[in-house]
Amino acid sequence: MTDNSPRVLRIANAQGFWGDSQLGPLRLVQEGPVDYLTFDYLAELSLSIMQKQKMRDPQAGYARDFIQVLENILPTCQQKGIRIIANAAGVNPAACRDAILQTVQRLGLNGIKVGVVSGDDILDELDALIASGEAFANLESGETIDAVRQRITSANVYIGALPIVEALEQGADIVVTGRVADPSMVLAPLIHEFGWPMDDYDKLAAGTIMGHLVECGPQCTGGNFTDWRRVPDMAGIGFPVVEASADGSFVVTKHDGTGGLVDIHTVTSQLLYELGDPENYLSPDCIADFTSIRIEQAGENRVKLSGIRGRAPTPTFKVSMSYADGYRVLATLCVAGPDAVDKAQTLAEMVFERLAVLGSPIPEESRFLELFGTHVLYRGIVPTAEAPHEILMRIGARGRDRKALSLLGTEIAPLLTSGPPGLTGFAGGRARPSEVVGYWPALVSREKIPTRVTVEEI
Amino acid sequence: MPRVVLGKIALARSGDKGNSSNIGVIARTPAIYEFLRRELTGPVVREVFREICKGEVTRYELPNLLSLNFVLRDSLGGGGTRSLITDPQGKVHGAALLHMELEVPAELLP
């Protein structure tokens, strides 16, 4: 495809997380040039939530938000030739595909090709994989999987760019996937359009870093930024757009007329976001070296990155699993008065003592108490507020005994009539226990994870 | 030497990975980067976060971005949905670090 490749390819990420603003995608397609739009719906634990939704309703288990977005932007995308890549399929690619088909039909569009990438979901293959020698030891703690095997509720592999490239080669206008490494969604169109070979690791690393930069949307155009007072029109903040060149260099920018700021500091801030070892940023496609990046201001709201180096990927894919890890409960209460801290301590003792009397004692190590307003977010860093006149008591517990935790919820309201004065803010009803979803990151051999790609025209 | 908060000479962004957080610190000038590379070590950050971070602090250097990256292990009260603390994703760790005070040579101040 190199002979007719465009000089620059414009890729934008329109959704930084499940629940991000619906305004982002709309403005991106309407207010400036874009060739590819990506949507990132999956945080670490999103798939376990979708798995639960699917258990309740076999037609659920994907990002329904995406369907709503498509409804709004698809006519414009078809008219302008903007192609869409989204990890919206969650744990139910078939249902997601059906919903897309219905949307296309409802809009009265035709000639749209929909690609579905699957194979990331290995929940049903876990036993076979373990029998074949995959240990799935916890990447953080080193624990073996035996401890949680029976409680695992979702298991998904971070697959790479290749299956998305395959769908694009087959002409897909919309590609949906389950779990895929976030940056791979941005890398895929670059491989497809520029014909980058899968062993040109410097270029794959450049595309991976582009993906890393835009995956959280406006966090690279002035959102969540230390010098926020310098950021103009935050209400109208523009989502980031990368203008990629075939040599792997690229410019980060945003549409003219949108709010926000693109400068070396806003972009560097996002480069550092959720970063571990900068020389070894692991993706399924390559290892990117963040210490090789050259960064320069290349005009107003334009930052150029070049010189990026990469290496071959590791022989394994990362797997993200979730497991049932008991329950938690958290209740809140506003406590007022110059002695608010003492009052809250007394209240917490009262709650735990009453639970013990009721026959549901909560062991000390399972209890939780945080007095918001005493500088808990800055504990040890700035001096503790001496006597705040109002604090939010956050009291809770974790454990396997759902009944005991639910009793904690019922013992909060009685504090208003039986405890110290100055208590309020007890609205929204009783706190109830919710399930704790444990996170189990692990590795799996690449060759054991076949992916499937289907493309069909509507 | 004047005593100033880190936020005067640097920017920060923080986030989570499991039960660890990371804080990226960006020096506002090359001279400040050299100063921070000497002064803002892993153990110093570990000490600042002694009541929040229960594990090791590892520091990485990115001279090309005038930046240091700190990974704080066991700093999120269990991480994910386990954690009951107000900031289970370490979103505020960056802003918190910017409040630490340092003695900075006057000529480095912006």
TrEMBL record, chain A:
Domain Acyclic terpene utilisation N-terminal: start-end pairs: 9-454
InterPro entries: AtuA_N
UniProt name for this protein: DUF1446 domain-containing protein
Native source species: Seongchinamella unica
From TrEMBL, chain B:
Source taxon at top rank: Bacteria
Domain AtuA-like ferredoxin-fold: 6-102
Name under which the protein is recorded: AtuA-like ferredoxin-fold domain-containing protein
Organism: Seongchinamella unica
